């Protein structure tokens, strides 16, 4: 099977990269076997360290068979030390991955404990670390774990997951190990963070993201479920390709991505003003879920209930269509304008209709019906529709959608692939 990144001219999985995989103790440890296999498919070499608790769930033999290397288990093993000393082992990799990252391992990392091979390696290294946490929901939500994770984030430890769902222990909530494909994506992302060419240097790209809030009065507003994740990921991916990125964001809980300008707005009118003020741009990507209507006259004071009176009637007026405005012919039109079509039914037909109606160049269609968990979730399945092509992408993380889309935008802006699908 070809690695999904193999043919991308902007970026491929960096070759010759090595991952040191620390397998912690947890019921999800068995998924590391699939992860090692996926990494091998992408040409990434994996060496494994198995904690004592981890060895209760997977055998060193299976990890060794899949990785093709000795599995290290013991800090004081003469044989292991002869093959590769633990300090050298900790520095031999381009990335250390802790999977599953148990509450215990997170606590040891946060407090700098070094009482076994895994924790000693983690303390002895300056290699980037990615953790895929997995634990019972109460453990994940315990204040101790919350502050350990917060502390680790401040030290630039990367996290992937955990997912929310039913757990092996019968409880439901956050704490499930992310799927191996998602962890693989995060590993590739971490390994290629410095790998892409700065192909978009000198280009300005505008991205809208998140919902808009349309006030009814000072305390109430009309909103939607957009989390902003997809738009933020696209903005970050374009910045990594060297573009100057202006991200115009509605209200979200997401931190501003590093290396780009984020303009925070509340309403559709504010978003439109910020977009227009940010022109000219070489490309515009409208990922925001802009409210179609606003209340004609929002009240300056909180609307009060009056005993016996009917509920207030909302008089709605249409908001400007930011995407259609950007797409309209004129000297300030970006050379590439991309919209999103979030649909719950008849996805492709609605999206094609929007492509024509709004006059943009590409539309990214996605199904946001309730069962898909796309709105607010971390994965997306998209179809890229242009006026001459149709490209269906499989389900992947929003980060991976963003990276592929950024690469495709880069190829288009640099005239390498004008309009067509990625090879
Ligand atoms: N969009 C925009 N300004 C608006 C409404 C939508 O820029 N006032 C953009 C979105 O950012 C997205 C695209 O238009 O890129 C499609 O948005 P969507 O809400 O799916 O389409 P609508 O035109 O609002 O159509 P409908 O709500 O009927 O599906």
Evaluate the radius of gyration.
Answer: 24 Å
Ligand names: cytidine-5'-triphosphate
Helical run tally: 14
Overall morphology:
globular
Reported CATH architecture of the largest domain: 3-Layer(aba) Sandwich
Looking at this structure, what is the CATH superfamily of the largest domain? CoaB-like
Helix amount, in percent?
25-40%
Question: How many strands in all?
Answer: 22
Tally the structural domains: 2
Average pLDDT, to the nearest integer? Answer: 89
**Beginning-to-end CA distance, first to last residue:** 16 Å
CATH class of the largest domain: Alpha Beta
- State the CATH topology of the largest domain: Rossmann fold
